[in-house]
Amino acid sequence: MDSNLRIGFIGAGNMAYGIAKGVLQSGDVPPTNVKVSAPSARNFGRFQELGVAVTHSNAELVSSCDLVFVAVKPHLVTTILSEITDCVTRKHIIVSVAAGVTLATLQGLLPFDTVVLRLMPNLPCLVQQGALLFSRGTRARQEDGDLLRSLLQHCGLVEEGPEAWIDIHTGLSGSGVAFVYLFAEALAEGAVKMGMPSALAHSIAAQTVLGAGQLLRDSGKHPAQLRSEVCTPGGTTIFGLHAMEQGGVRAATMTAVETATERARELGRKSAPTATENRK
């Protein structure tokens, strides 16, 4: 990786911060080569603690960087890209983190030959345990994808796939994090109902989710196999699982992923008509 690579983040939210932490953790990119822009200074402090420069000017950031993460809410993408388009050159790589905003929309809002990639991370990037999926635009080469993968390797699991998978990944992992939190909350509240102190119940629930997830990832076993290994005939677990199946947990979870995916697709359809070709 080029040690002179300059990286910018438009947006100073959690996703930008988590990715920035991961990028800097490798040591390949010095903090002096990273810059963040946002209209408010509210979140600048934690970036400055990393040694990262900050600015309120998106145009200034793009002009001084080679690879730019656009880490803003989907409804702001059109405004942001219109603002920076005159600063984008052939040397730039633009990586969008905006849910639902398609590569076609992004490419339509930027100069014709701009290298664009679409990335969907999730909140555990904050602790370098994220699940990230990216897709390349029509003018992004394999080496552009390799560069992005290398930059993100310390953020967690990084995979490349077709763009059609990005919205599914949003439902599975982007939104899925909240689904897991809801389950952990319910798990702890069940223990509280049975008489355990709340703080202890939530601590044990968090460790249970963490341990189960790590075992699932590292063992390579199918979830159903691990689940069956916990169950004994007539034991506590099979009785609890029966109650969960009666409550429709499996169907509700599948529907939640489906609904979140469809919402991501809807956001993409809403953003598409706003794109106007801007060819240089």
Could you describe the 3D structure shown?
The chain folds into two domains: 7-162, Rossmann fold (3-Layer(aba) Sandwich); 176-264, ProC C-terminal domain-like (ProC C-terminal domain-like fold). Strand 5, helix 5 (103-109) and strand 6 form a beta-alpha-beta unit. It is elongated. The protein has helices at residues 14-25, 44-49, 58-63, 77-84, 103-109, 142-152, 164-174, 176-193, 198-219, 223-230, 236-246, 249-271, and strands spanning 7-10, 34-37, 53-55, 67-70, 93-96, 115-120, 130-136, 156-160. The chain is built from twelve helices and eight strands. Helices cover 51% and strands 13% of the residues. The chain is an alpha/beta fold and 280 residues long. The longest helix is centred in the last third of the chain and has 23 residues, at 249-271. The chain has an eight-stranded mixed sheet with strand order 3-2-1-4-5-6-7-8, sandwiched between helices.
